[in-house]
Amino acid sequence: MFRLAENEFSFPRPELALREPNGLLAIGGDLHPDRLLNAYRQGIFPWFADDTPPLWWSPDPRAVFTPESLHQSRSMKRFRQRTGFHVSLNQDFAQVIQACAANHEAGPDGTWITAELQQAFIRLHELGHAHSVEVWADDVLVGGMYGIAVGDVFCGESMFHERSNASKLALLVFAEHFFAAGGQLLDAQVSNPHLSRLGMHELPRQHFLHRLRESQQGKAKLTPGFWYSRELPHKSSGNCC
Hints:
single chain; alpha+beta; four-stranded mixed beta sheet; 12 strands
């Protein structure tokens, strides 16, 4: 494991990360926007608690969604047709990240979304790099997710729900719009059974890093203006996923 210099934003190669714990690459540094962006552009992300210095990770394999892998059940399709929820993009980033933090804080392991991390990501949102998806019941936020855009890849960070199916709706609706607009990969970092049911699968880290580098080279495929704040239509067409 490498120790980062305080006044430099460079990282060691992700391939040098530890096997146990899986993906731990470096310790130290801070959450300066340039350091965070440099990390995500190399397939590295921060994950640490309030009582530790920043820890930086790049696990192998990597959990991802692709346009071909996205899946929704018949019951979820019916839910989308009947629900009164509505979905938006970039309409309340701060509330989404705060709700994600509170949701994890209530769990047995606490949250890694510390106050410091929240402020760092809110700054990235203000700079146009971090984005949120919101699920609303009338004007009440009941679910959502947030992450960082890197070229044509979206690195998902966390999601939450206050009502059944709200986080699933956020992910599925966002992913459909993202892939339809030219997005190539939705990074979920590490696998879990919930995401697997929605079509998440694992890529060897070297394959993930190759696709991440490709997404930042040449002309972007993502539709210009995709990240503008707006409503995202969510009624299932019945032939998607």
